[in-house]
Amino acid sequence: MHTSTMRRSARAGLALVASACLLASCQNPDNHPEEETSAAAPESSAPQSAASSTSATTEETTETSAAEHEGPRATAEGHVVVLSTGGTIASTHDKTGAVVPTVTGSKLVEPLSGTFDKDKLTLEVKDIAKLDSSAMTLDDTDTIITAVNKELQRDDVDGVVVTHGTDSMEETAIAVDTFQDSDKPVALTGAMRPFDDPDPDGPDNLALAVKTVTDPSNKGRGTFIAFADHVIPARGAFKSDTTKADGFANNNGKKQPQRPKALKFKPLGNTRVDIIAAYPGAPADLIQRSLDSGAEGIVIEGMGAGNIGDELAQAAKATAKKVPIVLTTRVDHGPVEGIYGGAGGGATLADAGVISSGTLRAPQARMLLAAAISTDTDPAELFPDAD
Predict the structure, then answer these.
(1) Which end of the chain has a smaller Cβ tally under 10 Å, C or N?
(2) What is the Cα–Cα distance from 342 to 124, expressed in whole angstroms?
(3) Helix axes 310-319, 285-292, angle to 10 degrees
(4) Per-residue model confidence as pLDDT tens digits over 313-369
(5) Which distant-in-sequence residues (6+ apart) come within 8 Å of 368 by Cβ?
(6) How far apart are CA 230 and CA 318, in angstroms?
(7) Do residues 271 and 138 lie in contact, with contact meaning Cβ atoms separated by under 8 Å?
(8) Listing from the earlier edge strand, what are the strands of the sheet with 121-131?
(9) CB of 324 within 8 A of CB of 376?
(10) Are 275 and 366 spatial neighbours (Cβ–Cβ below 8 Å)?
């Protein structure tokens, strides 16, 4: 080898050694303040494990983090029925790349085989549907409610988990809660990434749901959404993001939502309740067209704290004398309050008999109004959080 070549090789070797030393220094946490390390770490959309999360609880009484129930997942005990209904959690990519429900409930629980102590916990799986939840009808909701209540009546069952698509999970959750005449917990869960994703979030969410319904402190508290390391009461829950793994939020703040007395189940499938979105200049005939199409109740998604334009308000006040109308808001957080006067102000509408949804948004308000109509219940009784 020529002398010049040897020198170049030696210099290259020294450069590699120096680079390796520099890399080791960067990776050594002792060389960097802890706060700089956490600040530099990119935010990940992947959910944390239900057993290892350190996220803080943001809603002290209504939303809990799995970190509050820290401990081995194997401590979960009892008999849990898992009802599989489809959704992203049970979906895989087809030949075109589209995501479609294909996976059975038994396959969904397989990743949990090493998570829980089989001598202490029994997971019984039943497939009741393979649905894209955006395509669900009230008949499908009836099927899920009936299946949940059937399992809750069994003496050997301690809780029920429903795997479900995220698009309409909040509706099914509050529907199940409304007809849940049992103190055994129910949890709905799903996923933002499909079953065949390289990093699926479904297994962790399902494990959290199982822990939720086997937690003795949840007895008598109704139905929950267990998702991305958070356990949220059904009432006031809503899907808050279209892509993040932590895709659900709670609109109750630090208040524990009031749960009305459970209704005796009556099918919702034949009950039509429409949602009308208010906007500046919305015409009155939106309501009449809905009524002409067979609506038995109407939810108006208002603006701000619950306000609508003059023309739509005149129609709403007249219609509220014969058909129940519930007023909600398009704003994510905060209650609907009758503060403003004027033709379409919330206070004026309340005086005319329009019912406030309180902390519930349009999708859940629609489910409650349908339940009230189908059971011949005063709709106001199902909105106890409203002023």
Answers:
(1) N
(2) 56
(3) 40
(4) 999 999 999 999 999 999 999 999 888 888 888 899 999 999 999 999 999 999 999
(5) 174, 178, 326, 360, 379, 382, 383
(6) 43
(7) yes
(8) 64-65, 230-233, 223-227, 186-189, 159-163, 78-86, 121-131
(9) no
(10) yes
Backbone torsions φ then ψ of 90, nearest 5 degrees? -110, 25
64-250: CATH topology:
Rossmann fold (3.40.50)
Summarize the confidence of residues 281-298 as an average pLDDT: 97
What are 274's two structure tokens? Answer: 């429409």
Q: What is the pLDDT of residue 65?
A: 55
CATH of domain 273-382: 3.40.50.40
Q: Which two tokens stand for residue 94?
A: 């087809």
Q: Kindly report which listed range (70-74, 123-127, 266-270, 354-358) carries the lowest average pLDDT score.
A: 70-74
Quick one: tokens of 107?
């396959």
What one-character-per-residue DSSP string does 62-105 give?
Answer: T-EEGGGG-S-GGG--EEEEEEEEESGGGEEE-TTS-EEE---H
- Is 273-382 the same fold as 64-250? yes
**Residue 7 in tokens:** 């020198």
Task: Catalogue the active-site residues.
Answer: 88
Cα 174 to chain centroid, rounded: 10
Task: Point out which residues pair with 122 in neighbouring strands.
Answer: 79
| Global model pTM greater than 0.90 | no
Structure tokens at 124: 């019984």
Is residue 164 within 8 A of residue 133, CB to CB? The reply is yes
Q: What is the residue extent of each domain of the chain?
A: 64-250, 273-382
* Residue in 317, 316, 266, 310 with CA at minimum distance from that of residue 290: 316
Q: Give long-range contacts, CB 8 A cutoff, 24+ apart: 14-18.
A: none
